[in-house]
Structures are given as C-alpha cells and as structure tokens.
C-alpha cells in the first residue's frame, strides 16, 4: 500500500511542477494545490498505513491493541489542509485582482511590469 | 517571573496586541499607541529573556505540562533569545517610523494587526522546539507578510506580491515535505528528540536527501544564490515602513532556520552539506552585490544588498567553527540594524523629496546634513568600515575562514565588502551630493508616491512631523554605534550561542530532561 501511494505522490509532484512552470497564473495556482495535496499524502504515507484499525482501546482493556491507525499523521495533515486552504483563498483572490488590474495573468506581462524605467534613462 | 512564562510571553504579546488592534478597527489612533506599547513591552520581555538565558542556560517549556517529546516544546537558547531581542528592537523602531510614514488608508486596512501577527509568527519560529510547529509559525508569518506586501493594492504591489506568494508557498510545501520525511524515518517531531534519533540512523543518503529539501526551502525564504530572484522583484514596491520590517525580519528567519537545522540535525556529513552551503554563500554574495551595481532606485539597490549580505551569514554557518558561527550570528544582528536603518532612511528621503530614484534625489547633503550623517553611519556599518558593526562581523568571519584555510571564500567576502562600498558610494554620489537632475525646485513628485493612492487626506499619515521618522533612524544608528563600541560584551553573548549550537547535547538535555 505504501509503495502504491508513493507512486501517487510522485505523480502528483511531477504534475504540479509541470503546472507551476506554465505561464498562466491560474495553472500556477492549480499546481500549488496539487503540490500541497502531494505533500499531505506524503505525510500520511510517512505515518505508515493500516487498514481498518481504528485507534480505540477496547472496553475493559488498559492499552490499545498492537496495530492501530496513526492518529498523529492525520492530525498533522488536518492542520496542513486548513493552513493550505487559507493560503489558497488568498492566492485566488490575488490572481482575481491581477486579472481585473489589466489581465496580468501571464508571466510575460508580469516580467514587463518589473523593469525599472529609471535604469534606462 | 517564571522561566516558562518568560518563554511564551514574547509570542503572546504580539498576538494579544494584534487581536486588540483588530477589535479597534474603527479607532486607528488608538491602534498606533497600543501597538507601540506592545512593541516596547515585547522588547522589555526579550531583554529579560536574554538575561535569563545568559545567566541560567537554555530554557525550555512544554505547553500544558505534557512530558517533553510529546507536547509542543518552546526552547530559548542564546541564538533564539538574541534573535527575539533584535527582532523586537526592529519592531519598536518600525512602529515609531510608521506613525509618520503609514498613510491613513493603509492603517484603516489593518496595517497594525498584520504587523503584530507577522512579528508574533517570527518570534514563534525563533522559539519553537517542534518541527511541525515551526512550519505553522512560518505560515503565520507568511500570510501576514502576504497581506502587508499587498496592502494598498497598487498595481506594482500586486504584480510583486504574486511572485512573492507563489515562490513562498512552494518553499513552505518543500519544508513540509521535509518535515514529513523526517517524521517518517524518526517517528518524532520534537527537534531535540529528532536530533538524537537522526544520529542513530545509519542511512546517510536518505538524510542528505532530506537536508537538501531543507536547503531549498529555507534557501528560498532566506534568499540564497539560485533562489533569491523573488526578493529584488518584490521588495521595492511596498511603503518603506513595511519593507524595513521585512528586511529586518523575514530573510533572517530563513537564515535562523538554516542555522538551526544544520547545527542540530544535519551534522553527520559536514564535509558534503556544508561545502554546498559554502559555495552557495560565495555566489550569493557576488551575485547580490553585482545586481545592486546596475540599479538606480534607492530601494532596489538596498534589496539586492539584502541578498549579498545573506551570503556572509551562510558563510559563517558553512565554515562551521565556533568563531565562524559567532560571525554568522553577529552578522545577522548587524545586518538587521544596518539594513533596516537604510530602508528607513530611504523612507525619510522619499518623504522629504517625494522620490526613491537616486538621480532625482540629488543634493540631500546640502539641505539635510543630519540625514546624510545618519546615512553615512548605516552605510559604513553595512560596508564594514572600522570601527562599526560590519567591520567586526567581517573580521570574525575572516578569522573563521583563515582558521579553516578557506582562502577563496575569504577573498570573495573581502572583495564583496569593497563592492558594497561602491554601491553605497553610488547612493551617496547621486542621492546626497549635488545632482544635475535634481527636481527640488520643480517640486514634482515621483510616480511611486502617487501611484494607486487616492487623493486628499487618505494618503497622509497621522503624524505629519518628519521628526517622528527621524527618531527611529537615530535610535538604530545609536544602537549600531553602541554595539560597535561594546563589541566585547556582544561577542561574549554570541560566543555562548555558538558554543550551544556546536554542542547539540546542551539543547537536547535542556529539552528532554
């Protein structure tokens, strides 16, 4: 199961790098979404996989059974998802504003904005 | 005051002030003064924290009385305490400067709440002893800096912000990936425990791979050689108050994190990882200073110099001897002082003349000799003239390079120091000596001040007197002179920091016992 998920994570990383390197800012944002999902899955895989082993202590027992799902990696991902969601909302609004500001959603247009006119006069 | 409270207070104060100022949205006048009170008390607490750490050794606390490796740990060693103090000093200076520089519109849109969140995030990143928690603090300070960078919504700020946001999101995700892998191989996130567990794992290839993720991620944040292009592309757009704050805090958090992980975790194969860092340091210095040479705008020149100065800090880390690490830590403090002050001076010049373009500024020396003297102190400190702070920093680093016989990096560092002087001389020649293109008589304003801002009172600050802007500049210049004169004392404190960094068992024992 870990092997399979490793390939999924790798595929997501590759796709996100491809999208981030595109010119269009909307693709960049989608690339960042994929990257953040890839990283979340990576943490999940790193917490080791179990199947159908909820983290409960049976009634009458003092300790949990030997094999239980790792709750820590789930908590980490939950935090990372929430943070990523907030940052994504900000980025989307920013891209929207750039579009309204004069279709500045292409990296060439952005580059042209950067040049300091005072250097060339 | 107990040590536990003392460690948490520097984080609590900025967040409390941030929340209070947010609640007082309609009363911007109150916000300014509450913010100032908050910053001064943060500074007082930071002084106390450094004193306690210096007299009683590393302080650690785990929230909610959880036993050490399980709860979220906060640790104050010398490095963290020094960084908190210098960050708080920058906070005070920038707060005073903001009274006279931030326009009413930006204050109304929440400059003070976000500034406090930024400082809270930075201080949290300095003090935390938990890897995942470090990621959370980075995100806190990032989102605050995103908003501050865009505050005012001018076209150039927006175009700069998208680059800044995109590259920093990618860098954070790389960091999170590294954290995930470390968790995968050690099963822990507590930095002290991770350090002990990593030492026992016998797979250098895996750990080196993870260390590269950390270099890339923190390297983007601290703007080292192949990863710094976002910085000069974005740092010249927001108002000087915000940029002075960024220059003093943001890249330095990246450097702090690099120093932390490359002294605590990735020390088993110093010959490989730290050699990479040494090359990176050299290229960072040279490319930053060359980039500055072509620029013609006060803030753009200074932005490139941030990059070049980062190289010196990385150099100290890469040499990895006690003396070199003292140099790196001292250089961070020195750079925070000198660089923030230069940005503040550019803000004063802009306020007086209405432009950041050097050729249009021309002749400031004749009209404002006081400002010229303050500029000379800060720029000489940056370039490394004796007896100012930059000289001491470079001297200690040079001794570190001589001890390890790294003569190439020594030559590069000294040459870059000369070229820094060239850039500062350029600002002086065009900005302060009488210029031919001076627009003083015409009284026109540059596009930077007019761009995107409405008309009338919304673009004015609450305090119109320019003296409130001079005050923090004088304050930091005095600090530079103070640190230069009492270098012996400062050296003793930073030496303690270096000793702790090179002997991770001190850190580990303080947390786990």
Notes on the protein architecture:
- The complex is a heterodimer of chains A (121) and B (513).
- Chain A has helices at 2-20, 25-46, 71-100, 107-114.
- By secondary structure, chain A is mainly alpha-helical.
- Chain A has one domain: Helix Hairpins, CATH 1.10.287.
- The termini of chain A are far apart.
- Chain B is an all-alpha fold and 513 residues long.
- Chain B has one domain.
- Helices cover 78% and strands 2% of the residues of chain B.
- Chain B contains 23 helices and 2 strands.
- Chain B has helices at residues 3-23, 28-56, 78-101, 104-108, 111-127, 131-150, 155-186, 191-200, 204-222, 230-234, 240-264, 270-294, 298-319, 322-353, 358-361, 364-367, 369-383, 389-403, 407-432, 447-450, 467-485, 487-502, 504-512; strands at residues 59-62, 73-76.
- Chain B has a two-stranded antiparallel sheet.
- In chain B, helix 1 runs antiparallel to helix 5, helix 9 runs antiparallel to helix 11 (240-264) and helix 11 runs parallel beside helix 13 (298-319).
- The radius of gyration of chain B is 22 Å and the shape is globular.
Structural key phrases:
heterodimer, A: 121 residues, mainly alpha, Helix Hairpins, 4 helices, 0% strand, elongated, B: 513 residues, two-stranded antiparallel sheet, 23 helices
Overall outline of chain A? elongated
CATH domain fold name of chain A: Helix Hairpins
**Taking all residues together, what is the mean pLDDT of chain B?**
88
Low-confidence stretches of chain B: 440-456
- Estimate the global geometry of chain B from the Cα principal axes: globular
> What is the alpha-carbon Rg of chain B in Å?
22 Å
Tell me the count of domains of chain B: 1
Portion in strands of chain A: under 5%
Strand order of the largest sheet of chain B: 1-2
């Amino acid at each position: 199961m870990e092997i399979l998920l490793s390939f999924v994570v790798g595929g997501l990383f590759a796709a996100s790098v491809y999208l981030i390197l595109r010119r269009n800012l909307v693709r960049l944002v989608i690339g960042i979404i994929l990257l953040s999902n890839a990283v979340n899955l990576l943490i999940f895989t790193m917490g080791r996989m179990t199947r159908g082993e909820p983290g409960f202590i049976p009634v009458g027992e003092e300790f949990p059974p030997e094999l239980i799902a790792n709750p820590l990696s789930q908590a980490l991902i939950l935090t990372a998802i929430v943070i990523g969601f907030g940052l994504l909302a900000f980025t989307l609004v920013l891209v929207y504003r750039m579009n309204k500001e004069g279709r500045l959603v292409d990296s060439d247009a952005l580059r042209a904005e950067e040049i300091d006119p005072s250097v060339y006069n | 005051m107990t040590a536990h409270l003392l460690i948490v207070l520097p984080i609590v104060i900025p967040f409390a002030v941030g929340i209070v100022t947010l609640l007082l949205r309609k009363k911007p006048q109150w916000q300014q003064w509450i913010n100032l009170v908050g910053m001064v008390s943060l500074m007082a607490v930071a002084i106390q924290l450094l004193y306690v750490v210096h007299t009683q050794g590393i302080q650690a606390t785990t929230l909610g009385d959880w036993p050490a490796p399980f709860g979220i740990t906060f640790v104050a060693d010398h490095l963290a305490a020094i960084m908190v103090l210098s960050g708080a000093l920058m906070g005070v200076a920038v707060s005073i400067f903001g009274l006279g520089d931030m326009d009413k519109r930006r204050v109304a849109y929440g400059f003070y709440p976000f500034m406090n969140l930024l400082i809270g995030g930075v201080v949290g990143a300095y003090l935390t002893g938990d890897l995942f928690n470090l990621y959370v603090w980075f995100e806190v300070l990032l989102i605050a800096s995103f908003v501050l960078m865009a505050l005012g919504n001018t076209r150039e700020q927006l175009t700069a912000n998208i680059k800044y946001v995109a590259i920093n999101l990618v860098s954070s995700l790389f960091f999170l990936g590294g954290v995930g892998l470390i968790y995968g191989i050690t099963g822990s996130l507590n930095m002290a425990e991770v350090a002990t567990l990593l030492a026992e794992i016998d797979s250098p290839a895996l750990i080196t791979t993870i260390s590269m993720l950390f270099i890339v991620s923190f390297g983007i944040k601290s703007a080292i050689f192949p990863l710094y292009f976002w910085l000069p592309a974005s740092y010249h757009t927001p108002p000087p108050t915000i940029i002075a704050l960024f220059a003093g805090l943001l890249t330095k958090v990246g450097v702090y994190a690099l120093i932390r992980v490359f002294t605590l975790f990735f020390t088993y194969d110093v010959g490989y990882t730290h050699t990479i860092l040494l090359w990176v340091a050299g290229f960072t210095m040279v490319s930053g200073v060359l980039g500055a040479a072509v620029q013609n705008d006060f803030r753009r020149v200074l932005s490139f110099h941030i990059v070049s100065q980062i190289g010196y800090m990385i150099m100290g880390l890469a040499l990895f001897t006690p003396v070199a690490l003292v140099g790196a830590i001292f250089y961070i403090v020195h750079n925070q002082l000198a660089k923030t002050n230069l940005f503040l001076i550019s803000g004063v010049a802009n306020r007086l003349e209405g432009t950041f373009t050097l050729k249009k500024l021309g002749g400031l020396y004749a009209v404002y000799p006081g400002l010229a003297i303050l500029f000379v102190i800060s720029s000489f400190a940056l370039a490394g003239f004796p007896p100012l702070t930059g000289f001491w920093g470079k001297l200690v680093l040079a001794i570190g390079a001589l001890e390890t016989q790294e003569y190439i990096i020594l030559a590069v560092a000294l040459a870059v120091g000369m070229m820094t002087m060239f850039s500062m001389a350029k600002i002086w020649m065009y900005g302060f000596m009488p210029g031919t293109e001076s627009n003083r008589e015409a009284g026109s304003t540059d596009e930077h001040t007019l761009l995107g801002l409405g008309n009338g009172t919304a673009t004015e600050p609450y305090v119109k007197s320019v003296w409130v802007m001079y005050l923090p500049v004088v304050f930091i210049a005095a600090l530079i002179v103070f640190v230069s004169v009492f270098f012996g004392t400062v050296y003793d404190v930073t030496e303690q920091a270096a000793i702790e960094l090179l002997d991770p068992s001190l850190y580990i024992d303080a947390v786990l016992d």
